[in-house]
Hints:
The radius of gyration is 15 Å and the shape is globular. The longest helix is centred in the N-terminal third of the chain and has 27 residues, at about 1-30. It contains four helices and no strands. Helix 1 (about 1-30) runs parallel beside helix 3 (about 70-90) and helix 3 runs antiparallel to helix 4 (about 95-115). The model has no long low-confidence stretch (mean pLDDT about 95). It has one domain. The chain has helices at about 1-30, 35-60, 70-90, 95-115. By secondary structure, the chain is mostly helical.
Amino acid sequence: MYTWLKDAHVALAYVTLAGFVVRGIWAVMNSPLREQRWVRIAPHVVDTLLLALGITLAVMLSLSPMEHAWLNAKIIGLLAYIGFGVVTMRASTRPVKLVGFVCALGCIGYIFAVALSKQVWPF
C-alpha cells in the first residue's frame, strides 16, 4: 500500500509540474488556450489528489512537520509555489507573469530537492 501511495504521489507531482509549465507558458504568452474550462479545472483536481496523498503518507509514516524540518520546508515551499503561481496566472503584465513563473518553477525545484534529500537545504 505504501509503495503504491508513494508512487502515485510522485507521479502526480510530475503531472503537476508538466501542467504548470504548459499553463505558465500560456499565461506568459496570453494564450486563449488557458481559458478553456478543463485547463482551469484539471490542475485543482490533480493538486487536491497530490496533497491528499501527501497527507496520507505523512499520517501513515507518523511524520509531523513540527518534528521533521524537511516536511515543514516542503509545506512552506508549497505555499510559496501557490503564491507565485497565482502571480503567474493573474498578473496583468507579461514581465510580472514571467517573474512569477520563474519563481514558481524555482519553488517546485526546491520542493522536489527536499523530497529527495529529506534536507531543508538540499543544494
